[in-house]
Specification:
By secondary structure, this protein is α+β, with helices and mostly antiparallel strands. Helices cover about 40% and strands about 25% of the residues. The chain has seven helices and nine strands; from the N terminus they run ααααβββαββββαββα. β8 (about 180-185) and β9 (about 190-195) form a beta hairpin.
């Protein structure tokens, strides 16, 4: 991460400290203002977890908690499939339960929030250069984005996704003259991703103090 980006991120963190804890109702109000329609299950789970954290004095997850709960989807551990739970938010943990299917699931997640604007097809992953014993080597990830051939050489880290793939996807979007990009904000050891314009990302960042970036630069 560049020094400028790091300083800006720290500025947002300081502003969060000055702002203090944001109530559940206020978080929901702001998210609704930005067009998010969270499920009743998400809101209920959020309130229950928030009560526990209030007792423990543990905070710092304003906005990321409801967004993650609503956008993490549903995993089927019997047939190794994933089903999206939102058409607005894709949230994931970088540690995937199925190593050889992680990039397929990730791209499926991106497509699920593109509102029909994007299609990811012909997804293939070649693990022949991956070192499964020592978590080294690379994975050759190939796919078509709206018919355009894209390729990403991912660093193999076992069951951890190489998040830099988002840079390649956004690069392809630029070449396709698509206005929106995939922006993300942090969530524990994963990301919460939105398909949006830069203007929307900055407005959301200003309202929530969640750092938003269309680049993975760490």
């Amino acid at each position: 991460m560049s020094d400028m980006a790091w300083e800006y991120r720290m500025t947002l963190s300081e502003q969060k400290d000055e702002r203090g804890v944001v109530s559940v109702d206020e978080q929901l109000r702001v998210l609704q203002k930005f067009g998010f329609t969270l499920s009743e299950q998400t809101v209920l789970a959020m309130r229950e977890l928030w009560e526990e954290w209030e007792k423990e004095g543990s905070w710092g997850r304003e906005y990321s908690l409801p967004l993650y709960l609503d956008g993490c989807g549903d995993y089927n551990y019997e047939n190794y499939t994933w089903t999206p739970s939102s058409s607005q938010i894709y949230a994931y943990d970088c540690e995937f339960f199925v190593v050889e299917g992680m990039y397929r699931i990730y791209l499926q997640g991106l497509q699920s929030i593109s509102e029909g604007e994007l299609t990811f097809t012909d997804i293939t992953t070649d693990y022949s250069k991956a070192n499964f014993e020592n978590r080294g080597g690379t994975v050759d990830v190939r796919f078509k984005l709206n018919g355009k051939e894209c390729r990403f050489e991912a660093e193999f880290m076992g069951d951890w996704l190489d998040t830099h793939i988002r840079n390649e996807v956004n690069r392809c979007l630029e070449e396709l003259d698509v206005e929106k990009r995939f922006y993300a904000t942090d969530c524990d050891q994963g990301e919460i991703i939105f398909f949006c314009t830069e203007k929307w990302a900055r407005e959301f960042e200003s309202a929530t103090l969640c750092y938003m970036s269309d680049k993975v630069n760490y």
